[in-house]
Amino acid sequence: MLPWDRLGVNIRRPRLRVLFILGRISRAASLYLLLHTSVCGVDWEENPNGHSPLPRARGLGDMEWLEKNLQDNFDLPPKHPSDEALRRWRSAVSFVKNRRRRFRMVADLDSRSQNETKRRSLQVRTYCLPYPSFHVPPLPALLAQRLTCKLSDAEGAKNKEYQVTEDIRNAGFSINPDELASITSKHDVKALRMHGEVDGISKKIRSTFDRGISVSDLETRQGIYGVNRYTEKPARSLWMFVWDASQDMTLIILMVCALISAVVGLASEGFPKGMYDGLGIILSILLVVMVTAISDYRQSLQFKELDNEKKKIFIHVTRDGSRQKISIYDLVVGDIVHLSIGDQVPADGLYIHGYSLLIDESSLTGESDPVYISQDKPFILAGTKVQDGSAKMMVTAVGMRTEWGRLMSTLSEGGEDETPLQVKLNGVATIIGKIGLLFATLTFVVLMVRFLIEKGLTVGLSKWYSTDALTIVNYFATAVTIIVVAVPEGLPLAVTLSLAFAMKKLMNDKALVRHLSACETMGSAVTICTDKTGTLTTNHMVVDKIWISEVSKSVIGNNTLQDLNSVISSTTLGLLLQGIFENTSAEVVKEKDDTQTVLGTPTERAILEFGLKLQGHNGEDMTCTKVKVEPFNSVKKKMAVLVSLPNGTHRWFSKGASEIIVQMCDRMVDADGNSVPLSEAQRKNILDIIHSFASDALRTLCLAYKEVDDFDENSDSQTDGFTLISIFGIKDPVRPGVKDAVKACMSAGIIVRMVTGDNINTAKAIAKECGILTDDGIAIEGPDFRSKSPEEMRDLIPKIRVMARSLPLDKHTLVTNLRGMFHEVVAVTGDGTNDAPALHEADIGLAMGIAGTEVAKESADVIVLDDNFTTIINVARWGRAVYINIQKFVQFQLTVNIVALVINFVSACITGAGVIYILFYSICASMVVPLVIPDIHYSVNNTFFLNERARDCAYFIDIVNNTFEFCSPGSAPLTAVQLLWVNMIMDTLGALALATEPPNDDMMKRPPVRRGENFITKVMWRNIIGQSLYQLVVLGTLMFGGEQLLNIKGADSKSVINTLIFNSFVFCQVFNEINSREMQKINVFRGMFSNWLFIGIIAVTVAFQVVIIEFLGTFASTVPLNWQLWLVSVGLGSISLIVGAILKCIPVKSDENPSSPNGYLPLSSGPDNI
């Protein structure tokens, strides 16, 4: 008997026999190609002979097709993406199961457009004000705008009269809240004068400039004038997330199929047996929906908590005569607010007094030019920012009575920009979803064609029964379930889950992440440009040394202060104290317990505290009248004050960077307090003193004065002719742990660069102590850096480790060149208002939470709450953890996708030997064709012959067919209920387990992932393909030979083997989940038992699997297994750990950039790195 006779085919003519073999082989080759495409993908290349394209299977090292597709359609910059880029990837997402859930955490571009329209309408209204800014718009537009506004205002004035109600009078106030609010919001100078200017308003709201309001009146004021909050949309409830999760189109279709199955089952099999299949699917869907909704709801609570942290802004007010720090939400009308550079104005108010106050109203008016505030122009609006100067303001309107509050309440939530990882994984989900849809469609078509053929050959197509409808519904449910499992809808949402977890942990570690993308981008940072003061140092400053009248003294302790008192004259001491007390931005305030506290910047506090101690030994009152104040400016690097002396003369005091002040001086104070000319030798000696202070890591400041007879109020302070009084050496110790943190950065491939305004010697001393300035690095001053050409900068920038005496523009230039010339991912720290451009330009802007201004914080992506450099390293650690955790989850989920897709497709569509046929015919496609075809010939008597090797192959076909001919065609080993459970394991539970892994020290021993590197690495493809092949072989063997291999007999043998397949498949995923914890290291158990969340999810998965197998068989189509088969299931799953270890020993070709191997180090032979 020939092989084709044993196959059950009666072929007598030789030509037909040849055609039969060719047909079987071509069918096998096509199936092999389809399977290989699903696992590895296929490219089509041109045939060198000019014929049709030839398929080229992609192997481990040829996955560029996926990355190219992702880069073309799903590439998004980490910061400030354009609307075009945001819309491009949205349009590329063509197949989504649940749009409400998939796009829940992405920006709503339509809402943003509406918000921008509302902002523009507000900007038009602000042109009605008497002085919107120094910039004047074109006259016709301005006249049209003001005419429209005046007409509307006049109309409103006729219809509205303000009345002081009985409630207002009983509370002790004498002005209507709406009238008070309109005076400031409309800049109504006429109404302000009618009420007696600012003084009259303060009396009507029972507030005084020096004592503020009484704390006992807070509730009354909030009841009459409102609270400082604007109306916000209520938080989404759990049931809204349940509704979102239930909008999954595939789950809806499955629900319909389940209902139809239940109805048909009841009609054909009766109650309750007929309902089991449908009811099982329904219960599985409800479980998936609830678990998904609870996970999403918990994420929303985490984001809500973080959002509330972002809104925590504190300001200084005067209440009951003492200065206090309160939340902006506790602000009430009548409060006296202290404003300084970088503050955001928390409410509408009136200017009381201050110095050089410039307000940036661009957030309200759209105008970039600042507005100068004075007694003549006293109106200050909420939401604006202090660009320069300082002042006291009396609050006149809060919350919804401010223009800013009304705007914020009307703006709909536009959402935050999606992160690059979210977009990239949306692309992965889209590509795999299309493949899954194709396979599902083919599955349904093949099943239906087979069903119709069999029906036509048996009973005919004219006769239909209820069981036929049930069969078709089951086929359709199988196809839909393939889509459920094949489309990794949870990939983009896993990023959100991981980011929410990381942001919560970082909040506990004193880092507030304002933008989601910063958390993942920080893991790719190549350079950190950090400030010195307060970041690398403790920011607890004290005056350590002083030079005065050519005497240098250490001033730590009371004894040294007495010694200083004894070596300088009273006149000199008087000048010193006068310069300290008059030229300072710090302030001595009285607390509630009558104790005194010094408020201000650390530098100003240190000098003022030194002056207070020195004054205690002197006891002379040096109070003068301030005429003009120039606050400290990071560009000029000095501050100045003009005071009026009791004798009628005026005196400038200037304090700032030592080199700048010394350059302004041509005289100095001698031991008797006289101003004497400064010789070159003395100037050189002074510079040597400055250098010696700086070399001891002391921050140096100089104090000088100049007598003037007259002055111009509109001109700046003079820059020459000053008399040098003293040099301060201020000690600011390096923070504990900074040196180790810098060392960790260096081992992680992150370069730390110090950018400071301090003296270069001070900066170098601190940098060496921290380990920043190494032998191959250089220190440079800002003026030298600015003078370099672009070509010189290209050679210089890689060597720079310290930049001293720098301006904010220097920092911005450095960041721009690092990103533009060298394509580096740059993180920048900043605290001042002028740092905002650099924070905005950098990939990750890090603002200081203590020393930082509100303007800097608003421009930043992360707020370092404790101003500590070590916290910045924690952000980098968690950033890397997020990136690597998502890679782990993607590796795990794609493995499940491939295996579930292939197993169900093959088992449902292949007649006879199923997967083994495919594996066997793949051998035929590469082996039998070249052996058989060339050797076919016809003898004289027209007898068909095969060569010996081909005959062996034919007999092998016969053996395989005889072995697996028991397989029933069209059966799927994994039912819809089982696949839904697998989908939940790999989606929600898998994300919780793998995407929330905490960082470890090894992450900071890998180079950062640079721009443009593939997200799905070759290491991941190796693991995915290897684990997929192992699982396919195991499950295919069980599917087509399990009964013989395990000697399973009896009427329920088919149910037992299907249950075993399902159980083995689940345990393969459980152990592969453990395997995915490490993508390259063999020891996957390190740190696992300390991760209680991971252990809990694995335990829950195993426990629920036991329940499904042993107790829910009626609904899940399973039967209880004996302990031997349980061991088989667990054993087959655990072998994946061994397979994983073997795979990790297979070398993978490194990427194009060998210095940056996707965040992974080669395997080490040492036991610590296994």
UniProtKB/TrEMBL annotation:
It comes from the Eukaryota. GO terms for molecular function: ATP binding; ATP hydrolysis activity; calmodulin binding; metal ion binding; P-type calcium transporter activity. Its EC number is 7.2.2.10. Gene3D superfamilies: 1.20.5.170, Calcium-transporting ATPase, cytoplasmic domain N, Calcium-transporting ATPase, cytoplasmic transduction domain A, Calcium-transporting ATPase, transmembrane domain, HAD superfamily/HAD-like. It is found in: Membrane. Residues 192-266 form the Cation-transporting P-type ATPase N-terminal domain. Residues 1151-1170 are annotated as: Disordered. The chain crosses the membrane at residues 249-268, 274-294, 431-453, 473-502, 894-920, 1019-1041, 1053-1071, 1092-1117, 1123-1143. SUPFAM superfamilies: Calcium ATPase, transduction domain A, Calcium ATPase, transmembrane domain M, HAD-like, Metal cation-transporting ATPase, ATP-binding domain N. GO terms for cellular component: plasma membrane. It is a multi-pass membrane protein. Keywords: ATP-binding, Calcium, Calcium transport, Calmodulin-binding, Ion transport, Magnesium, Membrane, Metal-binding, Nucleotide-binding, Translocase, Transmembrane, Transmembrane helix, Transport. CDD domains: P-type_ATPase_Ca_PMCA-like. It catalyses: Ca(2+)(in) + ATP + H2O = Ca(2+)(out) + ADP + phosphate + H(+). The keyword Repeat does not apply. Belongs to the cation transport ATPase (P-type) (TC 3.A.3) family. Type IIB subfamily. PANTHER family: CALCIUM-TRANSPORTING ATPASE (PTHR24093:SF529), CATION TRANSPORTING ATPASE (PTHR24093). Catalyzes the hydrolysis of ATP coupled with the transport of calcium. NCBIfam families: ATPase-IIB_Ca, ATPase_P-type. This is Calcium-transporting ATPase.
